[in-house]
Amino acid sequence: MNPASSEKSARPLEVRALHYSYPDGHKALNGVSFSLRENEKLALVGPNGSGKSTLLLHLAGGIAARQGEIRLYGRPAGTEDLRRAVGLIFQEPDDQLFMPQVADDVAFGLVARGVPAAEARLKALAMLERLDAAHLAERPPHRLSGGEKRLAALAGILVMEPQVIVLDEPTSALDPRARRRVIETLRALRRPLILTTHDLDMALDVCSRAVLLHDGAVAAEGSLPGLFRDKELLERNGLELPLRYSAT
Ligand SMILES: Nc1ncnc2c1ncn2[C@@H]1O[C@H](COP(=O)(O)OP(=O)(O)OP(=O)(O)O)[C@@H](O)[C@H]1O
């Protein structure tokens, strides 16, 4: 799908009345609707079990939308469209890194798409350099630190030039330095992006808007920082004020 050929005003991603129950009958999404604007960075927040990961799996084409609809640039998108257009970075980058060297891992998606290996490697190296991670290129991925793995996984997704980037908990289990590095990298991206997180301070640094999920439905949405200053709203939905506001 080529966004240039679609309506100019269409949103990169739109979710309409999405419901989902797992095969055991557990209802995880209960009519979720929201949209992502061009070049917007959106935080998806909510307590444990509110449906964030289930929603991300739908966005990345891992689960088919059976009730409700997902649209890419104004057009209904099936799982194949979503897999092609949306780059998902898992919470555990180990799931994404499996080649002997980081550079091969970063090039993997391009090679799978038919790009000749030498060209794919050059692109992978250029992307690692852009993320200030060229020194990781020849390291075995399983020996990297958590923060380095996140950067490698991010390079592997960005090199594919996805239309929309989706990240599941990009800063969980990172030390302060790695966390800062991931935040800087995400801030510098010029792509529509959705991330899930429990780290509201990170969301404030990276995102301009947030959607708050509770029990599989949108409990609130709005611009940042406004939404994350509303202590009562956050507490009602199982969240706490970001550290920077709770200190005052
Ligand atoms: N495979 C599954 N089968 C049945 N129920 C599931 C399955 N995966 C998740 N659920 C349930 O669906 C609901 C939403 O789960 P989901 O993982 O999407 O929440 P989340 O907001 O990502 O949570 P967390 O913040 O803990 O990662 C939860 O009640 C969860 O128990």
**Strands in their spatial order, largest beta sheet:** 6-7-8-3-9-10
Order of helices and strands: EEEHEEHEHHHEHEHEEHH
Strand content: 15-25%
* Helical proportion, percent range: 25-40%
Tell me about this structure.
The structure is a single chain. The protein has one domain: Rossmann fold, CATH 3.40.50.300. The strands form two sheets. A six-stranded mixed β-sheet has the order 6-7-8-3-9-10, sandwiched between helices. Strands 2-1-4-5 form a four-stranded antiparallel β-sheet, with helices on one face. The termini are far apart. The protein has 248 residues and is α/β, with parallel strands linked by helices. The longest helix has 14 residues, at 117-130. It has helices at residues 52-59, 79-85, 102-112, 117-130, 146-158, 176-188, 200-206, 231-236, 243-246; strands spanning 13-21, 27-36, 41-45, 67-72, 75-76, 86-89, 164-168, 193-196, 209-214, 217-223. The chain is built from nine helices and ten strands. Bound molecules: adenosine-5'-triphosphate. Adenosine-5'-triphosphate (ATP) is lined by residues 22, 24, 26, 28, 46, 48-54. Residues 22, 24, 26, 28, 46, 48-54 line the site of adenosine-5'-triphosphate.
